């Protein structure tokens, strides 16, 4: 994987509008994600980050242009790490079964396909040896790690992450760090929705603030200065809010 | 090999004492064959039904068969196998439920409750209108299943349906499951979620209809649910879940068909099959309690 140069796509969002029911979720969102970078999207809850991802994945009706420019001949592998998976926690499904259901053709009940490298992917997220644990019984952080592991099979060219760190502990964060570094070094494009701004400052190449509109777009260290952050997460005008806190 | 030859073979073995004596009767061989087909297919498909929370749906489709039979008799199809009306009505019912579910803000159970009640009302009304025309035993067979009436045409329909369903279910198993875990992730991995949703509904429906003859309209849905539920209770992996469900459903089907004849009990096959499945479920629950007890 390493040494292939940049193999991830560039992504162009051009005046993207997304309306669900009668609510405008995204309005005139224009954004460029450079190939092979770690591009973070931050913004308040309900700001439309997950919706932007759904539009990118072709799963939300939108207006405007969303274009992926692949470096090679055709589209490469897109991986997606959802915010959560909803299903019956009591289902008799091991971690390995879960990966098998996602990654292989052979019916998962016949057992894992050894060629798929489940053990290796799990080791990369610090879940080595937990193949036989019941998926529904994992902690939130462990489940999140398995969701990261599935995105590594097969090796992705574009990886789309929706708040992948929410339940991660210290060790999990360290693993996520190195995973992101590996992906970046390999030339994978990473589109990363995250609410933890400290992590974004630390790990992203570029950051976009989103709350229905693009609020800002630039280098994380410049963009995520304290006042900007305040603007981003406050729906009331800043002066009013400051006064209220002061009084 | 034709059914005729197979039947002769089994009857020969039964006559020689190698198989239960009941199997010297041709009709019972037919019933047993259908049980051996129904069991594994319903058991396997049942794991998906239970995981996708379609238990109530599969019950409802079974009940729709009642109305399908009534319509069949009304339009002059043979009493013993009104398959055109059965398949036609049940597929219509199932597709309509799924279509409406995707387009209303009602939860699936509410919506199925509505459709089921209306369909049953229609079926019951039709049957009462037809009451003067049909033998009441036919109704009994439709409702609870019968081993006496499985003919070669029924076997052919069942085999064709079972083969088709298995041929689709096995290669699509992972994708059918994934679609219910997280549709967005499934689509990213190339799963046509909506299409598979409808396909699965169709698979459940045709298998249900093909099994009505032996299990009966009232109980057919239960063989999609109980064995899988029992397997779920005791299994700790997907493999165990699937294999146990297949095993439980097959054992229940065969036991429910053979035991009433062996013991000369006047119990309909559908009732006996589901009672057997219920016993297995009870056993599974107890086994789990004991396993839990061991863990402390
Ligand atoms: N299916 C839907 N129908 C209507 N509104 C929706 C739907 N899905 C999300 N929304 C709304 O869209 C807005 C953006 O949601 P989302 O993209 O999930 O935000 P974020 O991920 O930034 O927290 C929210 O206000 C949410 O209520
Ligand atoms: Mg979100």
From TrEMBL, chain A:
GO terms for molecular function: ATP binding. Residues 11-242 form the ABC transporter domain. Pfam families: ABC_tran (PF00005). Keywords: ATP-binding, Ion transport, Nucleotide-binding, Transport, Zinc, Zinc transport. The keyword ATP-binding applies. This is Metal ABC transporter ATP-binding protein. It comes from Azospirillum isscasi.
TrEMBL record, chain B:
Belongs to the ABC-3 integral membrane protein family. The chain crosses the membrane at residues 27-49, 56-75, 81-99, 111-136, 156-177, 198-226, 238-259, 271-291. Keywords: Membrane, Transmembrane, Transmembrane helix, Transport. Coiled coil: none annotated. Its main location: membrane. This is Metal ABC transporter permease. It is found in: Cell membrane; Membrane. PANTHER family: ABC-TRANSPORTER METAL-BINDING PROTEIN, METAL TRANSPORT SYSTEM MEMBRANE PROTEIN CT_417-RELATED. Pfam families: ABC-3 (PF00950). The keyword Hydrolase does not apply. InterPro entries: ABC_BtuC-like (IPR037294), ABC_TroCD (IPR001626). The lineage of its organism: Bacteria, Pseudomonadati, Pseudomonadota, Alphaproteobacteria, Rhodospirillales. It is a multi-pass membrane protein. The keyword Transmembrane applies.
């Amino acid at each position: 994987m390493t040494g292939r140069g940049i193999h991830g796509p560039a992504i162009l969002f051009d005046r993207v509008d997304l309306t669900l029911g009668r609510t405008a979720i995204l309005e005139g969102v224009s954004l460029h994600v450079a190939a092979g970078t770690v591009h973070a999207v931050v913004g308040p809850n309900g700001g439309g980050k997950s919706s932007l991802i759904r539009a990118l994945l072709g799963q939300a009706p939108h207006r405007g242009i969303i274009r992926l420019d692949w470096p090679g001949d055709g589209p490469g592998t897109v991986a997606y790490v959802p915010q959560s998976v909803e299903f019956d926690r009591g289902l008799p499904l091991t971690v390995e079964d879960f990966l098998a259901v996602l990654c292989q053709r052979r019916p998962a009940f016949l057992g894992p396909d050894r060629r798929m490298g489940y053990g290796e992917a799990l080791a990369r997220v610090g879940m080595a040896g937990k193949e036989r644990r019941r998926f529904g019984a994992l902690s939130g952080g462990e489940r999140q790690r398995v969701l990261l592991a599935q995105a590594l099979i097969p090796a992705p060219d574009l990886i789309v992450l929706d708040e992948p760190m929410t339940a991660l502990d210290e060790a999990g964060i360290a693993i996520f760090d190195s995973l992101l570094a590996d992906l970046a070094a390999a030339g994978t494009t990473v589109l990363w929705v995250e609410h933890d701004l400290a992590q974004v400052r630390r790990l992203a190449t570029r950051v976009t603030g989103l709350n229905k509109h693009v609020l800002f777009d630039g280098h994380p260290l410049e963009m995520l200065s304290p006042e900007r952050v305040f603007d981003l997460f406050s729906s009331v005008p800043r002066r009013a809010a400051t006064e209220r806190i002061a009084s | 090999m034709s059914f005729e030859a197979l039947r002769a073979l089994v009857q020969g073995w039964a006559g020689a004492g190698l198989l239960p004596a009941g199997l010297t009767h041709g009709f019972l061989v037919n019933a047993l064959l259908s049980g051996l087909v129904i069991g594994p297919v319903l058991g396997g498909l049942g794991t998906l039904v239970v995981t996708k929370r379609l238990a109530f749906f599969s019950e409802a489709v079974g009940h729709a068969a009642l109305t399908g039979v009534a319509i069949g008799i009304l339009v002059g199809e043979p009493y013993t196998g009104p398959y055109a009306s059965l398949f036609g009505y049940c597929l219509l019912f199932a597709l309509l439920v799924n279509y409406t579910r995707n387009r209303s803000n009602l939860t699936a159970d509410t919506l199925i409750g509505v459709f089921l009640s209306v369909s049953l009302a229609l079926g019951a009304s039709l049957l009462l209108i037809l009451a003067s025309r049909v033998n009441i035993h036919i109704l009994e067979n439709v409702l609870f299943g019968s081993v006496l009436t499985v003919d070669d045409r029924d076997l052919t329909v069942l085999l064709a349906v079972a083969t088709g369903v298995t041929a689709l279910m096995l290669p699509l198993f992972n994708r059918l499951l994934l679609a219910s875990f997280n549709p967005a992730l499934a689509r990213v991995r190339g799963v046509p979620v909506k299409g598979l949703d409808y396909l699965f509904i169709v698979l459940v429906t045709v298998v249900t209809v093909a099994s009505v003859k032996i299990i009966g309209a009232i109980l057919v849905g239960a063989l999609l649910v109980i064995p899988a539920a029992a397997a779920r209770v005791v299994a700790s992996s997907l493999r165990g879940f699937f294999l146990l469900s297949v095993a439980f459903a097959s054992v229940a089907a065969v036991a429910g068909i053979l035991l009433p004849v062996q013991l000369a009990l006047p119990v309909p096959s559908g009732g006996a099959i589901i009672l057997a499945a219920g016993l297995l479920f009870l056993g599974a629950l107890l086994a789990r309690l004991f396993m839990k007890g061991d863990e402390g």
